[in-house]
Amino acid sequence: MDRWQNRVAVISGASSGIGAACARLLVAAGLQVVGLARRTDRLEQLRQSLPAEQRMRFHQHKCDVSQELQVDTAFEWIEKELGGIDVLINNAGIVLGGQLIDMPTKDINNILQTNLMGSIYCTKLAASSMRRRQVAGHLIFVNSTAGVAGYKPDPADESLNAYTPSKFALTAVQEICRQELINQGSKIKTTSINPGWVATEIVPDETKAKLGEVILQADDVAQAVLYALSTPPHTQVEQITLRAVGEYF
Ligand code: NDP
């Protein structure tokens, strides 16, 4: 991780779960971390909980990633305060359950705006910052097993019906970014991390009860992010799929 010392990592959705776990690991690994989220009180709690010598490397900015103007404002602030972006972890995401063909369109829009468009807004600005400064940065997408070809939805659980298209689209976004960056002669890396169920706030209590111990922890996913980042400049980890041992779907 030597080459990332004091480099700037932006994590969307750092106020809880996987994003917060990534923030802890990256700050401890010596990066400057900017956490984006809507709940600034939770970002502040995270900052306060860090060891004192790491706290000054955690920065926070309120940002609803589904709103392009808010993303623009947050990234302008990062450029001004920290000089640019070297690593982006597109992690912010929501789940709204229901049957795709029957649920309110506004819920489907909300999922797509957050999980897909939010990642695209952040990716465009981060890639622009990296290319302008000629940095071989890293774009990481916290995707899902629901975004991987071959995913079979559980017919008894409709919580992911509208979420699944947002994550499938994210798989395409990562591959398109990879190809575009190669064509531009860029050394920026792209990685998708695809977890199965993880014990975080996004997962309903009844699902957690059903899964019992067959569930990943946020830190398991953060460790996969850290691994992808820690590879040498010539190595690109394209996909990591992680499931708890025994997870069926
Ligand atoms: P959490 O609910 O704990 O975290 C979600 C994070 O996203 C929060 O920090 C939340 O912050 C943020 N967020 C949501 N909407 C927005 C928004 N509009 N703007 C900015 N931030 C937003 O769940 P996880 O940690 O599990 O989720 C993180 C990612 O992992 C998601 O993309 C999810 O799809 C993915 N994932 C999760 C799995 C699981 O089983 N938990 C499995 C596979 C993938 P705030 O509310 O403060 O804005």
From TrEMBL:
Which Gene3D superfamilies would you find in this protein's record?
NAD(P)-binding Rossmann-like Domain (3.40.50.720)
Annotated GO molecular function terms are: 17-beta-hydroxysteroid dehydrogenase (NADP+) activity; 3-beta-hydroxysteroid 3-dehydrogenase (NADP+) activity; estradiol 17-beta-dehydrogenase [NAD(P)+] activity
- Entry's transmembrane regions: none
What the entry lists under InterPro entries is as follows:
NAD(P)-bd_dom_sf (IPR036291), SDR_fam (IPR002347)
From what superkingdom does this record's organism come? Answer: Eukaryota
Keywords for this protein: Oxidoreductase
PROSITE patterns hit by this protein: PROKAR_LIPOPROTEIN
One Pfam family matching this protein = adh_short
UniProt similarity note = Belongs to the short-chain dehydrogenases/reductases (SDR) family.
In Swiss-Prot or TrEMBL terms, this protein is called FI06485p
